[in-house]
Write a structure and sequence with these properties.
Helix content is 55%, strand content 10%. With 561 residues, the protein is an alpha/beta fold. Among the domains are: 4-85, Arginyl tRNA synthetase N-terminal domain (Gyrase A, domain 2, 2-Layer Sandwich), CATH 3.30.1360; 383-553, Isoleucyl-tRNA Synthetase, Domain 1 (Orthogonal Bundle), CATH 1.10.730. A 4-stranded parallel β-sheet has the order 5-4-9-10. Strands 1-3-2 form a 3-stranded antiparallel β-sheet. The longest helix has 25 residues, at 224-248. The two termini are 33 Å apart. Bound molecules: arginine (ARG). Residues 451-561 form the DALR anticodon binding domain.
Length: 561
Amino acid sequence: MLDLKKIFTEKLLAVLPESLEYDSVYSMIETPKHASLGDLAFPCFQLAKTLQESPASIAAEFSSKLHSPYFSKVIHAGPYVNVFFDPAKAGSPIVNHVLEEGTEYGSGEIGSGKTVVLDMSSPNIAKPFSMGHLRSTVIGNALASLAEKNGYRPIKINYLGDWGTQFGKLIVAYRKWGDPEKVKQNPIGELLKLYVQFHHEAEQSPALEDEGRKAFKDLESGEPDHLELWKWFRDESLKSFMEIYGLLGITFDNFQGEAFYNDKMSEAVQLLKEKDLLVQSDGAEVVLMDEEGMPPCLIKKSDGASLYPTRDLAAAIYRQREYQFDQALYVVGQEQRVHFNQVFSVLKKMGFEWADAMKHVPFGLYLKNGKKMSTRKGRVILLENVIKEAIALALKNINEKNPDLHDAEKTARAVGVGAIIFHDLKNDRMNNIEFSLSDMLTFEGETGPYIQYTHARAQSILRKAPPSYTFHGLGDEASWEVIKQLRLFPETVERSYLSLAPSVLAKYLIDLSKSFNKYYGKVRILEENDELTSRVSLVKAVAIVLAEGLRLLGIEAPNEM
Ligand code: ARG
């Protein structure tokens, strides 16, 4: 692939003082904010120090010395040497490369031979799937696809919240007040009610709490009736989660939740003992974290029951053994920051060097009218309904725009779901996001449907175009802007993963769509003349990159909409 930066670097090296090395020159090259200033720029500040001259005069001197058939112009702008590429010459190898590679374009090798485990989604059974779990699901899924595109082997683990004292309480509540028929009809709603009722009643009769704790303790030791009930709650919950995953089009490598580690915790606890890390505190066993400036990490309750951190320790040890991961990402809300810092530090104290390869990938909240969207209390938002509403709205938009579209339902699913996913991913992970269905579903503006629509527009041109084509070069400015965007796809895919920021790719897709739509507005693509095949090639290349970029974000790219 023609690397414009590389060409520029090589030409610079030929004229710069010998002390400068390829990699450092390459990494100093910038992209000017405005296309009118050129395609790439080299800043001369650092050289100025070495050469004891002003940056501007150095820029002036070097700009007159750079020549290449790929350059149409080299100028100096203040302290910068700026180069303009010849669109026809530099464009051909780029566009033809995209066409040759197809969906492979943008694939990288930084992760080859490496495994990354993603702990993602991880909703709690017997509770509604929350907006936070939605974020974890879509961010985790995009990171997994980006990892794969960069050569890693991703393992997507749905670490279901299916173990803990709350299930002891739920078992007690169900035995006292539960109705099997009601639970069958609306498992999550009904179980949530029972759980809430338990807490109400426990305020009056505190003995209930003890009953709940004991029930969990018995569950952990394998009491068969408890286990059976627990398994039923889990199956029913999973069924309703699977509907959501089905709508989102997201799959997992496994659903090994917290309960999966029930028989794997004793090993972790034993290791902690051997390393002398366990300390008694009010009857409970903890690892002190004073040195790290954190509260003690709770390992065992006074009744011997396990805790959330205990299970995460066991899970990490198991995953390292099972997958030998080179990286482990935990895509979990920022409110669990201390928990993960504790878990990682404890593993480190246990002597596991690989703990350095673990990373918490936090994210912000969803807001509705500026307030936290909550699944608790009365303000239950059923995600399934939200998704269905988005699909219905998308269908309405499609019917208005394109009433003849066949498969409108299927397309509406892709658009509705794509809108939700894109709206989440285009924001920096840590930002809070205002949840507004109408905003995320508009076809104009920086939305998923806008990019899908741009892709569908490209596909519709291709349906009318001659069937085979090659790019020979286009001289106009608008096409060159598109080509420059196409060139950036591989490095965007890499940066998006390395910075664990799907937003980098999402923003890129917006830029590519904008520059393509500008081109589309300026040029009659299907006009019969010498440049027809080049223009069609460019459209094809854009369609390839848009579809592949959307795929990486977990979004479908319908050919018509
Ligand atoms: N189930 C947890 C929750 O909803 C998230 C689990 C995150 N993953 C982990 N390994 N702790 O809060």
